[in-house]
User: Which sequence fits this backbone?
């Protein structure tokens, strides 16, 4: 087994890491391991098997049979051809596992990996899941206990072994100026940069999953009108924005006009009442016993024959009283 792992490591350094062989983890933490498989196994059942020997390993979790204890979980990305297994609450007994594909009427296909559970891992990262946006530069810090050369690899493809290199045509730099820390920078990432990567030092690997998505659109103010030809999408957006302003403005104008009309009608009615030539008033006593009314009559002016001038208007007021009990 040891000779097989050394041969596999030498081959991977030349071409790329095709499977996980050894991972250093901290006791009590969780770890997620990617398990690649061939396309012909896409629709097969995948499972995690615990134990050093193939013949005696025991099922931990299967894609068609979840783990009820909650310690293990499994998911299958058929588009990428990788299923992942997660092991939680790691202890010293979590050492030897197999990523297996179930083969009907034949021997199952499997890949062995080993977990080294310690108080302080020899190779680890801040987090296994890294997210970024298209065009960003992503930085991943790989912490290691020794001063050996650090590599950054894509799972199943190629590796960057020097300070600079390229993966899928994108620039990758590895800065190891800080002791025991290597900072990997992936420049101008694209959607195709998503996938599983590995920090590799010696015979240890630490898997890291990168997810690259489009940057969310932040709504900003847009001019209502544009000069020149422009594009149809901008014109349509301006039209929608203009309509969203016109509708509430029209409603506001209608409300103001109705309010103004009611106000003018009330004012006109008050003016008409105040200019009436006859005035009638009535009152009821506080105890409701006496009622009275008064009428003001305005007479025409008379000529004073002796003086030749008009006498002033006379005002006659008649009042009536009525007892409510009579």
Assistant:
């Amino acid at each position: 087994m040891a000779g097989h792992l050394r041969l596999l490591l030498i081959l991977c350094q030349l071409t790329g890491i095709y499977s996980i062989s050894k991972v250093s983890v901290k006791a009590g933490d969780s770890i997620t391991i990617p398990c690649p498989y061939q396309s012909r196994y896409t629709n097969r059942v995948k499972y995690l098997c615990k134990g050093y020997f193939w013949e005696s390993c025991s099922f931990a979790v299967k894609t068609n049979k979840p783990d009820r204890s909650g310690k293990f979980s499994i998911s299958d990305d058929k588009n990428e051809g990788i299923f992942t297994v997660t092991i939680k609450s790691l202890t010293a007994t979590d050492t030897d596992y197999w990523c297996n594909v179930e083969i009907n009427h034949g021997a199952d296909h499997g890949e062995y990996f080993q977990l080294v559970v310690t108080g302080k891992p020899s190779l680890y990262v801040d987090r296994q899941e890294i997210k970024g946006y298209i065009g960003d530069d992503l930085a991943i810090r790989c912490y290691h206990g020794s001063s050996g050369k650090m590599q950054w690899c894509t799972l199943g493809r190629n590796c960057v072994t020097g300070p600079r290199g390229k993966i899928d045509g994108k620039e990758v730099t590895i800065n190891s100026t800080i002791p025991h820390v290597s900072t990997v920078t992936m420049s101008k990432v694209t959607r195709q940069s998503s996938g599983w990567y590995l920090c590799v030092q010696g015979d240890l690997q630490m898997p890291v999953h990168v997810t690259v998505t489009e940057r969310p659109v932040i709504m900003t103010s847009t001019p209502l009108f544009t000069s020149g030809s422009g594009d149809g999408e901008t014109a349509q957006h301006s039209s929608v924005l203009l309509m969203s302003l016109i509708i509430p403005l029209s409603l506001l104008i209608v409300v103001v006009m109705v309010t103004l009309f009611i106000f003018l009608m009330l004012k006109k009615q008050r003016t008409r009442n105040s200019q009436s030539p006859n005035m009638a008033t009535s009152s009821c006593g506080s105890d409701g016993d006496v009622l009275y009314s008064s009428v003001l009559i305005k007479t025409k002016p008379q000529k004073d024959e002796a003086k030749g001038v008009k006498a002033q208007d006379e005002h006659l007021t008649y009042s009536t009283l009525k007892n409510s009990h009579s």
